[in-house]
Structure formats: C-alpha cells, structure tokens
Prior knowledge:
This protein is of the alpha/beta class. The chain has one domain. The chain has 4 helices and 3 strands, in the order βαβααβα. It has a 3-stranded parallel sheet, with helices on both faces. Bound molecules: iron/sulfur cluster (SF4). The site of iron/sulfur cluster has 11 residues, from loops.
Amino acid sequence: xSKVVVIPCSGMGKVYGLIxxxxxxxxxxxxxxxxxxxxxxxxLVTGDEEIKNYMQGKKCxxxxxxxxxxxxxxxxxLGQKL
Length: 82
Ligand code: SF4
C-alpha cells in the first residue's frame, strides 16, 4: 500500500510554520514511519517531472503554519487530492 505523503508548508518566518515542519517529521520518522513519508514542498512546485510522476495518485496531508495555507493551496493547484 502506498504511503500517505505529509507535506508541511515552508514557514521559515513563522513559528507555526516551523512547528508544521517538525510535526511532519515526527509523523514520518516516529509515529507512522511505515505509513507516511514526506516530500519537499519546494520540490513539488518546481514542476519537475520525476516528482510529478511520483505523486500521481498519492494521498496527501498538508500541515500549514498559518491561514495563508500555502501547502494546501499549492497541492490543490498541482491537482493533488487532500
Ligand atoms: S502557510 Fe505559508 S505564509 Fe503561513 S507559515 Fe506556512 S509558508 Fe508561511
């Protein structure tokens, strides 16, 4: 079964953005390491064919650090189901 891809925003300028990143790593490295993985949001937005193909049909969960919801918006733009 395919792992769920957990994508945090890249909130470098906000403490909740930092917490989003830490939370994603906690999930994929400790809590659900056999069921979840993560990929860089920045890599996804490059439009790179390899990551686009990899993400085809994957289930995703985004974690955003503020109401701007950058990760959720970007994944929706890329056609991912959240
Ligand atoms: S959602 Fe966007 S603006 Fe808000 S902390 Fe994350 S990257 Fe920054």
